[in-house]
Amino acid sequence: MAGTRILVIDDDRSFIHHMQTALRGLGEVRVTTCGVDGLRTVEHWEPDVVMLDLLLHDVDGFTLLERLTGPDCRHRPAVLCLTDGLGAGMRHIRGTYWPVGTVVRTAPAHQLRRAVLHAASTRHRHLAAATA
User: Fold this and answer.
1) HSE of 36, CA atoms in CB hemisphere, 13 A
2) Looking at residue 60, what DSSP letter applies?
3) I need a surface site. Which of 63, 73, 101, 102 has the fewest CB within 10 A?
4) 48 φ, ψ to 5°?
5) Cβ atoms of 38 and 47 closer than 8 Å
6) What tens digit of pLDDT does each residue of 81-127 get?
7) Are the beta carbons of 100 and 71 closer than 8 angstroms?
8) Using an 8 Å Cβ cutoff, are 49 and 123 in contact?
């Protein structure tokens, strides 16, 4: 999906570089290294997909996830939680208000790209169903 807006919220600089390289050509990628800025960016930029590190230094990632997927969120991006691979994988789990996926942060570039494309597609299907 060319033109997909992807926001990476992560405080690991080497991972950020890996993501920017892996996602090149999928759309516009923006990065923030803290949860507070990430939430502001979601509100103003309205990304299609947010890749969220749950272990941020400034905000509890689970609290941020609740804000991104809760009923009061004006903009609903697809969210991919970044995991270390223990018990995770690239599967989608349905949250209370919005689907949330997981992706292993050490996955090869082609798997990261596939996860982002799948998340964006899922988001568009859910939005279409909500307006039908």
Assistant:
1) 3
2) B
3) 63
4) -80, -40
5) no
6) 988 876 544 444 455 456 678 888 888 999 999 999 999 988 888 77
7) no
8) yes
Q: What is the pLDDT of residue 64?
A: 87
Residues in the chain, overall count? 132
Residue with tokens 């494309």: 117
Q: What is the dihedral of CA 65, 127, 24, 110, to 10 degrees?
A: 80
* CB atoms inside a 10 Å sphere around CB 72: 7
Sign of CA dihedral 116, 44, 18, 36: negative
Give domain 4-131's CATH superfamily: Response regulator (3.40.50.2300)
pTM of the model: 0.87
Tokens 């949250």 correspond to 95
